[in-house]
Amino acid sequence: MVKIAPFEVELWLNKYIPLSKHFVSSSCPLPITLNELRSLSDKPVSPDHDPIPESLFSAALHYGTPGGLPKLRETIATLYSIKTPTPLPAKNVLITPGATPANFEILHALCGKGDHIIVHYPTYQQLYSIPEALGAEVSLWRSKEEDKWAVDVEELKGMIKPNTKAIIINNPQNPTGAILTRSTLESIIEIARENGITVFSDEVYRPLFHSISPADPEFPPSVLSLGYDNVVVSGSMSKAYSLPGIRVGWIASRSDEIIHRCVNWHSYTAISVSQLDESAAAFALDSSVLHNLIKRNNDLARRNLSILESFIEKYRWACEWAKPVASTVAFVKFSKMGKSVDDVAFCELLLAAKGVMFAPGSKCFGNGVDFKGYVRVGYVIETEKLEEVLRLVGEYLEEGFESVPVAKK
Up-side HSE of residue 312: CA atoms within 13 Å toward CB? Predict the structure, then answer.
């Protein structure tokens, strides 16, 4: 049988969410209701322009269209075709029930026994645990904590082997909120092209870039726009678009071969996606709604990030960070007299004392070894709730932090 490592972040969330009063480690921004989504449209809502069109109420709910709702595939293809000389064909977009299944299908299409895979790290555990379970050799390309989670391209060059099959990146990065800049992405593509390697980019947080302007020359484009066909990306409605409940994600590639392999795995897993979910996604990504939805989430992220930054400045004696540039999460390090705390114990003690739930970095993102003292904070929630949570955490730091053990080496 295939053996795979426990999915630590999901196990942690499943165990402790029911016990928490304040869940502050979600990787999604504040979810939106369908009524709120309607209110963001620049066009009047009508029977044809609605998250759930009236026509669906009288339609038989068969399986969805193979590959996905044509309107949704065309809209996503258009988003990836901006500022590119060759538009992405809609047939090269495959709709999936969320990004996790999308990643599952991509990884099974790309990885196998005897392959060597390089993975940007830290990242969502799925991106390295599935290749390992499939028998691939995985090398972790570590971003630098001391350099705001930047990566070393020269180090990447030295990691390439004759059997290197894929370079897997996560941009923006979970759990740090850091980005791979345009120049870094261009270097990755150049290295991949020279060596005939596939680049897989998990872009679920795109385009939630709250702290860098599109006018910045280092603003990161999707790797699909960098002129290399041997690239595949995943995306989702859950993160940047605040719709985790509709379970819609996608796979996109300019390579017909990669899409064909993913379609084959799609047949073994999802088959199709709910027509209701796809309709809501198509409405949210429509040009009349999309920009208002992204503005809503970026504005909330900026406002809450400023509040979190003030908290960290106030408690510099206990915590530090590299301020996120994008996404909905921050990786905050807690320490005592220069020594990292036991982040698992800290999260459990904080939960017991104040009902506040964070995700411990070493357990959920570091294989139990790396990122001791770090916790993932999901700060793009209701502003008033974030303020209340940080007040409670501040109380704990002042009242009970002395009881938190330091991490063992």
Answer: 20
